[in-house]
Design a protein that fits this description.
single chain, alpha+beta, eight-stranded antiparallel β-sheet, 19 helices, elongated
């Protein structure tokens, strides 16, 4: 105990607890980890059930036949294990990716068919890799001075992915190998790769980051297969077994208590596979660890949250996101499969049906049989605020949903920075309707795995435009990005979620941050509501800016998808040449296409989306606010950026400023049948008032109807609220209510 007392004085409590756990579990005998191959994600008992299933009619047998056919096509060809030469998307990069997936599939086909041809194919490929690996230096296409280069791949992240798949393939064919093959494969390939990814790159292996997660998963599973319990402990607790890094610390620090991943949905999807795969391997090899109960079931929560962070089967594209990624990605297919195997939640079957992919595992068999039996129930997509940060108190990512002739959704982002993949876009928002992105976010500037386009890596414009604040739908002060574009500063601060509420009338959320700019507080309140006795949804947006001392220029961009239809103010359009909007912080990539200064009152912009609906953005303006229309593409010599449109509300030389806007979907355009309905906005008036703690937005329509959104703007709302508006008394319970004003 004396040693522990000295140790405790120099460590935080969490690390101390982790160290005790590591010391205890290291004392587990090798016999306690005794296993019968295979026993990672797929177990020996799974194999028996799966072998029976492929002899019967059903979706599992169909999936097996499809996989077997793909493997059969490949194993008739020569094995290709090329010397690494290319970056992401190049031939050698893609060949090594195909190889590890092919080995994995061939291993499964071997176990289910017991045809040794498949095991021999995996063996021969592993032996070819065992010949190649000792001859390799770090990858020739690695980044200069990179701390985490790979050997097969330009970065060790891909090397870890290779190991996660390959160690499972090896486990699947291990029972067919002789001693000489085992010795060569392990000593020349698998052990050196595991040591390279761990002891060879300690900063990456110990890092609380998705790169560290992949490395820990690969090395930990290799430890189970090759009887290296010390590797398992290091994968769980870091190389020093201190608990400052490793798989468990990643589970604790990278996810909020609700299962939201700090880097956003795109990287939550990507990081999910090592979490669920290694988690399943831990559960099968050391069930006493109760890994799926860790931190109140955080792995299962993370799987469910990943699903929730999608709209129309695609993930919300915040931070460094590729916008085409969705719930059918293999990472989430594996996640849903494992989650259903653990929980038997029939709602997950609804997602599995949409994914339309059956995984050839024991849990995959459970999913297949349940789908064949018609056990799926509707998955419940929610309006919810996901707290950010390890304790859920670093802001939040807010999702508001509503059903009105095609589901509407608002994504509101008062979330934390999101580490190096985060964008400088505090309090930004996006809007979706009828399956389409309407108010858009750029996502990442990258052509993933297209080697001809900057090696498939993030383009330079990812930093110079996509991450900059002006590329998003939030306020820019003095044409400077939030936190001056510094990730280290952004990681220190986060917005405060003031409130989130959801009722039958809709959802509302408010958040603020005073650290994006020195001396300036940004506060935004967004509501998604449906007008009473109507299917008409509205997004109400209130942005308050307060400067303590200095006057500033405030820009509020809105990036939209569609074709501009009209405005209710005159435009000065640049028709013969296009000036550039600015010199840096993303402004250098924007063409200035038109500008105007609307008169005091309402300023409306209407566009038509590809879904055949019109959208009007109507703002309350003071007569001294400019509207600047932009198009992306300036200073882009290699045409790396998409040419998308937007407009910016600009207020110059102001301390305090408020911008109130309403987004209104309306009408229909059908070019095939040649008809147009309700192409014009129905909003005729917007008024704003405050009565003590209650803030009020009145909305007038052209048919004479009037509505009043009332909400308690304080962090702590009262159970009952009373206010007076236009000499009439009102009251409501809870956070907000939408009233009808003298409507007949």
């Amino acid at each position: 105990m004396g040693m522990f007392k000295v140790y405790f004085k120099n460590m935080k409590l969490k690390s101390f607890v982790y160290t005790l756990m590591a010391l205890f579990t290291t004392m587990l005998s090798v016999e306690s980890m005794a296993r019968q191959s295979p026993n990672l994600v797929i177990t020996h008992s799974d194999i028996q059930a799966m072998q029976s299933a492929i002899t019967k009619q059903g979706s599992f047998a169909k999936a097996f036949k499809q996989t077997k056919a793909k493997v059969d096509e490949q194993i008739g060809r020569d094995i290709q294990v090329p010397v690494p030469a290319d970056g992401a998307g190049g031939y050698t990069h893609e060949r090594h990716k195909k190889n590890y997936k092919l080995m994995y599939d061939a291993g499964i086909v071997y176990q289910l068919s017991k045809d040794k041809r498949y095991a021999e194919y995996v063996r021969d490929m592993l032996l070819a890799y065992a010949e190649l690996y000792p001859t390799l230096d770090v990858h020739p296409q690695r980044k200069v001075n990179s701390q985490n280069p790979g050997k097969f791949f330009w970065q060790s992240l891909n090397e870890a992915m290779w190991l996660v798949y390959t160690i499972q393939a090896y486990d699947l064919v291990l029972d067919s190998l002789n001693a000489a093959a085992i010795e060569k494969i392990e000593d020349n390939l698998l052990k050196p790769v595991a040591l390279f990814l761990s002891e060879g790159q300690p900063s990456t292996f110990n890092k609380v980051h998705n790169h560290g997660t992949w490395a820990a998963a690969g090395v930990g599973m290799a430890g189970y297969v090759m009887n290296e319990p010390e590797w398992v402990e290091k994968a769980l607790y870091d190389l020093q077994k201190s608990g400052k890094g490793g798989f468990l610390r990643q589970l604790d620090d990278l996810f909020s208590p609700q299962g939201y991943y700090n880097e956003g949905p795109y990287y939550q999807r990507f990081a999910l596979l090592p979490f669920v795969t290694f988690g399943k391997a831990i559960e099968n090899n050391q069930p006493e660890r109760k890994i799926f109960e860790h931190r109140d079931g955080i792995i299962i929560k993370a799987i469910d949250t990943t699903i929730q962070l999608s709209y129309n089967k695609l993930f919300f594209p915040i931070n460094d996101a590729i916008k085409s990624k969705g719930i059918d990605t293999i990472e989430l297919v594996n996640g849903v499969t494992i989650a259903y195997g653990y929980t038997k939640d029939s709602g997950l079957l609804d997602i599995a049906k949409l994914q339309n992919q059956i995984i050839l595992t024991g849990d995959g068999l459970k999913v297949a049989e349940a789908l064949d039996a018609g056990l799926a129930t509707t998955y419940d997509f929610k309006s919810i605020a996901y707290g950010d940060g390890a304790d859920g108190d670093q802001g939040a990512l807010v999702i508001m949903r509503q059903e009105s002739r095609g589901e509407q959704a608002v994504l509101f982002k008062p979330a934390a920075q999101g580490l190096g993949h985060g964008h400088f876009d505090k309090l930004t928002w996006q809007f979706y309707d009828n399956g389409n992105e309407i108010v858009s976010d750029y996502g990442a500037a990258r052509f993933l795995n297209v080697e001809a386009k900057y090696g498939g890596r993030y383009l330079p414009e990812n930093k110079t435009y996509a991450k900059q604040t002006v590329a998003h739908n939030t306020v820019v002060v003095d044409e400077i990005s939030h936190f001056r574009g510094k990730v280290s500063t952004g990681n220190k601060y986060h917005p405060e979620l003031i409130f989130f509420a959801n009722t039958e009338q809709g959802s509302i959320s408010s958040a603020q941050i005073d650290k994006a700019y020195k001396g300036v507080n940004l506060k935004r309140t967004i509501a998604l509501v449906k007008l009473p006795e109507s299917d008409k949804p509205l997004v109400i947006d209130i942005f308050d800016i307060e400067s303590k001392k200095k006057s500033h220029q405030y820009d509020l961009p809105l990036h939209y998808k569609g074709h501009l239809i009209d405005t209710d103010f005159s435009l000065q359009t640049n028709t013969s040449s296009l000036p550039v909007l600015g010199k840096k912080n993303g402004y250098q990539h924007l063409w200035l296409t038109a500008q105007a200064t609307p008169e005091k009152g309402l300023a409306r912009v209407t566009w038509l989306n590809d879904n055949g609906k019109f959208y009007s953005h109507t703002s309350l303006v003071d007569g001294n606010t400019d509207v600047i229309f932009t198009r992306i593409g300036a200073n882009d010599p290699n045409f790396n950026l998409r040419n998308e449109s937007g407009f910016i509300f600009r207020k110059e030389d102001a301390k305090n400023h408020q911008i109130i806007s309403i987004l209104e979907p309306h009408g229909q355009y059908n070019p095939s049948k040649e008809f147009t309905l309700a192409a014009k906005s129905t909003i005729s008036a917007i008024k704003h008032a405050i009565d003590d703690d209650v803030e009020l937005i009145e909305i007038g329509l052209v048919d004479g109807k009037r509505y009043l959104l009332a909400f308690n703007r304080n962090k702590e709302s009262h159970s009952s609220n009373a206010f007076t508006y236009q000499n009439n008394d009102f009251s409501f319970n809870g956070r907000f209510k939408l009233f009808e004003l003298n409507n007949k």
